[in-house]
Amino acid sequence: LIRWSLYNPGAKFLDPVTYNAVVTSHALVMIFFFAMPVMIGGFGNWLIPLMLQVADMQFPRLNAFSFWVLPGSLYLMLMSNIVENGVGAGWTIYPPLSTYSYHGVCMDLAILSLHLAGISSIFSSINFMVTISNMRSVGGHLLALFPWSIKVTSFLLLTTLPVLAGGLTMLLTDRHFNTSF
Fold first, then answer.
1. Are 124 and 40 in contact (CB under 8 A)?
2. Cβ(72)–Cβ(111) below 8 Å
3. Which residues have CB under 8 Å from 163's CB, separation 6+?
4. CA 36 to CA 137: how far, in whole Å?
5. What is the CB-side half-sphere exposure of residue 115 using CA atoms within 13 A?
6. CA atoms of 131 and 57, how far apart (whole Å)
7. Each residue's pLDDT tens digit, 136-161
8. How many helices (H) and strands (E) does the chain have?
9. DSSP H or E run through 125
10. What's phi and psi for 89, nearest 5 deg?
């Protein structure tokens, strides 16, 4: 839809509000529901136990919890696109466009969805870091490049996702309690 709208400039295939909603939903779904869970979580859960020569991750129930939080989070994200006109605040959820005067319930659903996706990624990151640190094979002091990349990415996710959650919480208080973060 984005490419089709940009193919012929001046054509009114999508109105500006719908175009912004499509761009926002595309970006949020690709970042929080493909790049982080599939590329890091999916391949990590498949390849880390194989490369460390262990049967499973360190905390399999935490692993299952972080997986099963994602469908609910994705459902909330998809519902935020159906309710009202959708979230058209950009992939950064730019604060002037994400205020209550522009978006209502759809923005609240998107914020809740991003909170849940962040919780899922935080738990997965903890599981990856603990698994890679504690479950090395006895003779394997050197790790392959992929476990190192997952460990570094998990560390980066653990340092950035709480900041994102704090920003989303401040945005919620701006929207509902008239604060001015």
1. yes
2. no
3. none
4. 27
5. 14
6. 6
7. 765 556 788 999 999 999 999 999 99
8. 6, 0
9. helix 105-134
10. -100, 10
Nearest CA among 53, 50, 34, 114 for reference residue 80: 114
Query: Which two structure tokens, joined as six digits, stand for 90?
Result: 């950009």
Residues recorded for the chain: 181
> Mean pLDDT over all residues of the chain?
89
CA 176 to chain CA centroid, Å, is 23
What CA–CA distance (Å, rounded) separates 139 from 144? Answer: 13
Measured between alpha carbons, how far is 75 from 64 in angstroms, rounded to an integer? 18
* Mean pLDDT, range 50-70, rounded to an integer: 93
- Select from 127, 157, 155 the least CA-distant residue to 32: 157
Check whether 32 has a pLDDT greater than 80: yes
